[in-house]
# Entry
Amino acid sequence: MRPELELISDWIRPGARVLDLGCGDGALLAYLQKYRQITGYGLEIDTANTLKCIQAGVNVIHADLEAGLADFGDSSFDYVIMTQTLQAVRHTEALLDEMLRVGRQGIVTFPNFGFWRHRVQVALQGLMPVGKTLPYQWYDTPNVHLFTIRDFEELCRRKRIDILERTVLDHAHQAPLGPRLWPNLLGEIALYRLGRA
Amino acid sequence: MVSPQTAYFTEPLALDCGRSLAEYQLVYETYGTPNADRSNAVLICHALSGDHHVAGYHQDSDSTKPGWWDNCIGPGKPIDTNALFVVCCNNLGGCKGSTGPTAINPATRKPFGPDFPIVTVKDWVRSQARLADSLGIRQWAAVIGGSLGGMQAMQWAISYPERVRHALVIAAAPRLSAQNIAFNEVARQAILSDPDFHHGHYYEFGVVPRRGLMIARMLGHITYLSDEGMRAKFGREMREGTPNFHFNFDTEFQVESYLRHQGHAFVDRFDANTYLLITKTLDYFDPAADFDQDLSAAFHRAQAGFLVISFTSDWRFAPARSREIVQALIRANRDVSYTQVPSESGHDAFLMPIPLYHEILRGYLTRVAAEANAHAA
# Structure
């Protein structure tokens, strides 16, 4: 299991009601069902993935996140999760708002564009970064918004979103001292637990 | 090979219209083998023109034609009869052996004809529950249906929450739209205005309202197909031997020929009074009406897990209608999965062996069967 999923799982209260935006093949929800006894749904746009979710026994709703979350009532979930999805949506701000309308808390993970290896590629090689968390070329990437940890926290401040918890993982997907001290430079993946007063 | 069976019921069945049926029979077929506690039983509900012959072949003269969903039901198929015990009945009011307008009214010793009560989806579900009782099935592993069959699956989950573990609702709608009702009304008027209709007593005159029923079927058929599907299949192709316009009303285009063929074939196998009745059954279906127009309140009492499937080019019961069902289920905190399957086949897609669609059914039902058979073991 990816360490990212275990870390998210640590943040989830047993028996919680969870909505996973862009749930892919349902691996996170299947994990949370097993280890946290959660209920809820995944939203997924790709039918190959909705099929995998159904095969895995995960509730999945075929939907386009860009159309918003109008089907879901205010505070109808304990957690709304977006793993490695925020950078791939067009209406980033609107979706963050929707996330914290529908969920009491939001959990977001994304690849940190400010990770030192990415900086090296841009600054020294003059190339858009390609790596483990950004595995695409500029012309075939599903990512439409690339941003850094500092960028994200600045947006949260401006939107009055509370950062309840943050974990930053390094290249080996561990969370040692380095990324904790210099997250925007040494962190490759950022995980946030968010709320709104 | 499969043979239809008949279940007789002598306890009167009270109907939504206020009348009751003193006695009635349901014709049904079964496929596969029940497990020890019959927890692997699934009910297939048929749509407007369907019947109990859902899979396999009959031994009689008709044996070249398999059941209407044979591509989906059988050993190793998505609804796998190696693991599931499949039951399908002809609904009350039908014309394939279950009590309906063509049956003899014991009170008059003549066919019921137009005097057969208009039954609702709730009435059907009630009668199917009695069939389940007679077969010793306490709880269905799944109730499955497309179109009007999907409406029965929903109604089952609402009417008998403790008797349905899963409801598979395919190409359905939570109720008919004004446009849906309007199409039904034109179909009805075609039949009612046929001079051979005789106020529904045509059996006594030795005729059938062929023209009316044929037009009704042709109209219905258009709503089952999609614009893109018809374009791909027929385009503006002329019939063979018709190189030029005749400037009259002969059948010139392929699509005309196809519709007439569909209409003719239907008249030979279906009863006009049943057609009228079932269009009203469709029009009346509205489970939210019993719950202050709140569909999620209706689903709140359901205990089943739901699988909802729609098809992109279906405009009779468009994907948006399935989304209404899904939204109500989410608001009722029910387990639900939903996929909109890409298809050019319009409403008819639910009968087509579309790989993604069948894989979804297979994936879902594999778990249903495992659950049922673990239960029994």
In short: The interface with chain B takes residues 17, 39, 41, 47, 50-51, 53-55, 57-62, 71-73, 76 of chain A (CB under 8 Å). Strands of chain A lie at 17-21, 39-44, 60-62, 77-83, 103-111, 162-169, 189-195. Chain A has a mean pLDDT of 92. DSSP finds eight helices and seven strands in chain A.
